Amino acid sequence: MGNIAIPSSAPTMRATLPPPPATGEAARARCRALCRLAADLAAADADHPADAVLGRAGGRSIAAVRALAMYLAHVALGLSLRRVAAGFARHPSTVAHACRRVEERREQAVWDQRIARLEDIITREAARREDLRHG
Predict the structure, then answer these.
(1) What would the pLDDT profile of 101-134 be if each residue is shown by its tens digit?
(2) Non-local CB neighbours of 76 within 8 Å, separated by 6+ positions
(3) Could you write out the DSSP letters of every residue in 2-58?
(4) Of 71, 75, 68, 79, nearest to 32 (Cα)?
(5) What is the pLDDT of residues 14-36, one digit of tens each?
(6) CATH number for region 24-132
C-alpha cells in the first residue's frame, strides 16, 4: 500500500466516502483495503510498522496503535464493527472496546486534535484512491 505522509497541519475539510458495497468479495476486499489504510496511517503517526498493527503479536504500544487504527476504520471510514473486526482479524467486542478506549481519550484536547487531524487525512486519502471506490 505504501507509506502515508502525515502533514503537520491538515485542513479541517472532510471528504465524503461512498457507502461500502453490501456483500460479496468486492465488499470484503474494500474493507480489507480500508482497514489496511487505517493501520498504515496509525502506524505512521506512531512510528510503528503497519504489519505489526495488523498482526497478532505486539506489546502495549502496538495494541494502542491498533486501537487507534480500528477506531479510524470504524468512525472516520464508516465501517461496521464486524467489518473492522474482520479486517483486523479480531472479535467485534475487541473492536468495540478499542473504540471506547480511543473515544474516552478524546476528552484530552491534544489527543482530540490529533484524532481529528488523522480523521481528516484518512477520509481524504480514502476518497482520493481509486481502489477504494466502488460503482
Answers:
(1) 999 999 999 999 999 999 999 999 999 987 776 5
(2) 38, 118, 119, 122, 123
(3) ------SS--S----PPPPPSSHHHHHHHHHHHHHHHHHHHHHHHT--HHHHHSS--
(4) 79
(5) 555 555 555 688 888 889 999 99
(6) 1.10.1750.10
